Amino acid sequence: MLFRSGHTGDNDSRGGGSAGAGREKGHAGSGDAGRGGGEALRRLRLRFTGQVQGVGFRWNSQRVAREVGCTGWVRNEWDGSVRMELQGTDEQVSEFFGLFSKAYRQYPIEYTIPEKEEVPPVEDEPSFSVRY
C-alpha cells in the first residue's frame, strides 16, 4: 500500500489505512503515554519503505507519538527501511497516522508499509524512543 503524506482520505485505526487523514480534535498528550485511560492497548510492528531515511522520519514519528500518547520505538534499518513498534489505544494509533502525515504536508514523502503485524503490548513502557 502506497502512502503520500498530505493525502486526505479515510483514516484506518488499524494503522494500515490512509496516512493522510487526521482528527481535528484534541490529542491525548497528557503524559499518560500509551495508557489510554482504561481502553485496551494494542501494539503494531511495522516496516516502512520508500522515502523514509534522511527526511526526519524517526524524529517526526517520536514527536507525533508523544503528542498523541503512544509508546514504542523507531529505528533505521541497513536496507533503507524503517522499523517501528507503536503502542496505544485504537484512537491513539489512528491519531498517530493522521498527525504523522500532516508533519510532511509542505514536503510530501511517499512510503509503503509492506509489513504490519499485531504483537503483544509491552507493559509499563515509559515513552516512544528513537533507537540506533
- Specify the helix fraction band: 10-25%
Mean pLDDT: 81
The SSE string, one letter per element, is EEHEEHEE
Q: Characterize the biggest β-sheet.
A: 6 strands, mixed
Note poorly predicted spans. 6-36
Rg, nearest Å: 13 Å
CATH architecture: 2-Layer Sandwich
Strand order of the largest sheet: 1-5-2-4-3-6
Query: Could you give the distance between the termini?
Result: 26 Å
CATH class: Alpha Beta
Domain Acylphosphatase-like: 43-132
Family: Belongs to the acylphosphatase family.
Catalytic activity: an acyl phosphate + H2O = a carboxylate + phosphate + H(+)
InterPro entries: Acylphosphatase, Acylphosphatase-like_dom, Acylphosphatase-like_dom_sf, Acylphosphatase_CS
What key attributes describe this structure?
132 residues; alpha+beta; Alpha-Beta Plaits; 2 helices; 19% helix; globular
Would you write up a description of this structure?
A hairpin with a 5-residue loop joins strand 3 and strand 4. This protein has helices at residues 57-68, 90-102; strands spanning 2-4, 42-50, 71-76, 82-88, 110-119, 128-130. The protein is built from two helices and six strands; from the N terminus they run ββαββαββ. It is of the alpha+beta class and 132 residues long. The protein has a six-stranded mixed sheet with strand order 1-5-2-4-3-6, covered by helices on one side. Helix 1 (57-68) packs across helix 2. The longest helix has 13 residues, at 90-102. Helix content is 19%, strand content 29%. Its EC number is 3.6.1.7. Belongs to the acylphosphatase family. Residues 43-132 form the Acylphosphatase-like domain.
